[in-house]
Amino acid sequence: MLQGKTILLGVTGGIAAYKAAALASALVKQRANVEVVMTPHATQFIAPLTFEQLTGRRCMVDTFDRNFSHQVEHIALASRTDLVMIAPATANVCAKLAHGLADDMLTTTVLACTCPKLIAPAMNTQMFENPVTQDNLNALRRYGWQVISPASGRLACGAVGAGKLPEPEALLQQILRAAALPHDLAGKRVLVTAGPTQEALDPVRYLTNHSTGKMGFAIAKMAMLRGAEVVLISGPTAIQPPPFVEVVDAVSAQDMFEAAAARQEWADFIFKAAAVADYTPAQYFDDKVKKKDGDLSIPLKRTQDILQYLGEHRRPGQVLCGFSMETQNMLENSRAKLEKKKVDMICANNLKVAGAGFGTDTNVMTVITKDGAEELPLMSKEEAASRILDIAAGLAD
Predict the structure, then answer these.
(1) Domain housing 147
(2) How does pLDDT run across 231-284, given as a tens digit for each residue?
(3) CB of 195 within 8 A of CB of 219?
(4) Which residues are tagged catalytic?
(5) 390 and 261, same structural domain?
(6) Residues 176/225, Cβ–Cβ less than 8 Å
(7) Would you say residue 169 has pLDDT above 70?
């Protein structure tokens, strides 16, 4: 997701510098151009050669290294950098950057950068909590830096508390959120429902469906990466929710209805991708229903139609998207649903089409609006989510 992006990874002199190697490797796997700049003290913890082998690029330490090109190297690097990440950042480097001091290759280069800048302080707990350090971090925030809160735990010095550098995967997610996609949805609020519901019959059994939540989770993730504030209402799933997204757990159709209705007014965009049960047992048994000879009939009653409720109670300017899973007459049924539910768009797919349906990492769908239909070919669910967001954003213009 970072193909073509240049990421400047600044590494300073702390024991957590070893984690920066894993982060550099992860960025390379995302196809980023990774430029590593180390402070002289950082080279006492990890060798520049390590980063050179991982990135395939020269690691920079000395501002006056004569092996660089005839260009003013720190200015040339700053001009081509799309994002700065300093991890780990010592208290000393935080103080320098907060006050514009530039006495080495890293601080000199970063002072010339106009791109988004992230910093991950890592140090002893008492150093981190010192009011001077906190003042310096607040100054960085005022100057537009995103300060990543350290993790808590046992530190290398033996202390226990805040000051650990977050794991490389967590730092990678911070970079992806900041730089992977244009933030064309910044300032927008997106509500997504995803996954199945479970309708309890007794303490042991429930009615459900095969939904995994992958499509809804993909929409939530891509909306977050495009800068939106996202709330994800999820039924029971086995997949990890995307980072930086507020997750609201729901079990039954009634749970999901109440959660969606409570947040409808808040949302600019609503994507109701959840596979909500249409029926629920008419009676819940407090004790397990025992097996008997012969057949068993379970009376069912209709659940609240969430999409129809949202369509009937939508506020002006809100974009509402529903989903349709069909096995026959997909277009006709989905167009009828568009009108009946008073929504702006329906994402329809046919369960019998290869690559579509529940549990797959791909989808084949047709996005239907009042103005027509767009057929999306076989693509990943994240790619499909991006196109769905494009269409929804166009309807909001």
Answers:
(1) 6-179
(2) 999 999 999 999 999 999 999 999 999 999 999 999 999 999 999 999 999 999
(3) no
(4) 157
(5) yes
(6) yes
(7) yes
Contacts of 390 (CB under 8 A, 6+ apart): none
Question: 184 lies in a domain?
Answer: no
In which residue are the tokens 């057949």 written? 295
Same domain, 204 and 159: no
CA distance 389 to 53: 39
Interhelix angle for 214-225 vs 168-179, to 10°? Answer: 70
Entry field: residues in the chain: 397
Residue with tokens 């019959």: 201
Q: Chain-wide mean pLDDT for the chain? A: 93
Asked whether 114 and 77 are in contact (CB, 8 A), the reply is no
Residues 234 and 352 in one domain: yes
Instruction: Tell me the three state secondary structure of residue 198.
Output: coil
> Into how many domains does the chain fold?
2
Classified as helix, coil or strand, 342 is: coil
- Does residue 211 share a domain with residue 143? no
Long-range contacts of 108-113 (CB under 8 A, 24+ apart): 108/63, 108/74, 109/8, 109/37, 109/60, 109/74, 109/77, 109/78, 110/8, 110/10, 110/78, 110/84, 110/86, 112/74, 112/75, 112/78, 112/79, 113/8, 113/78, 113/81, 113/84
